[in-house]
Amino acid sequence: MIEVKLTTGFTEGVNEDEARHAVGDALHREAKWADAKYAYYERICGQFEEEYELTSDEFIERFESGELGDDRDYFDWYAAKRARDLWRRRSAIPSRAEV
User: Fold this and answer.
1) How far apart are the first and last CA of the chain?
2) CA-to-CA distance for 99 and 94, rounded, in angstroms?
3) Residue 38 in contact with residue 87, Cβ under 8 Å?
4) What is the pLDDT of residues 51-95, one digit of tens each?
5) CA distances (Å), 37 to each of 3, 16, 46, in order?
6) Taking phi first (over 0 means left), then psi (-120 to 50 degrees means alpha), and beta for anything else, what does residue 9 get?
7) Domain ranges of the chain
């Protein structure tokens, strides 16, 4: 488990519950944004998977080994797969956070 300490810097005017609520709201918005980005790249990967009849994991393995060549679609798919993986990880962070 990773713990993060929140220090607001306020000496007065903002109580702890208010700060927790504001941070919780921000985390919720970030989780929704990350989920939307993940879904976007998931759709792109799905289109490539359907077109080339490969899973994205199979594609990455074959592309990185040099088996597939350097077609422009492959670079777009590679970028979409990496972005999908990034946003999957990024969406897990705020959605599992406790404030």
Assistant:
1) 14
2) 10
3) yes
4) 999 999 999 999 999 999 999 999 999 999 999 999 999 988 887
5) 25, 31, 14
6) left
7) 17-96
3-state secondary structure the chain: CCCCCCCCCCCCCCCHHHHHHHHHHHHHHHHHHHHHHHHHHHHHHHHHHHHHCCCHHHHHHHHHCCCCCCCHHHHHHHHHHHHHHHHHHHHHHHHHCCC
Residue with token string 């713990």:
3
Find where tokens 């798919």 sit.
Answer: 77
CA dist 39 → 71, 83, 85, 91 (Å): 24, 11, 11, 11
Place of tokens 């919780």: 24
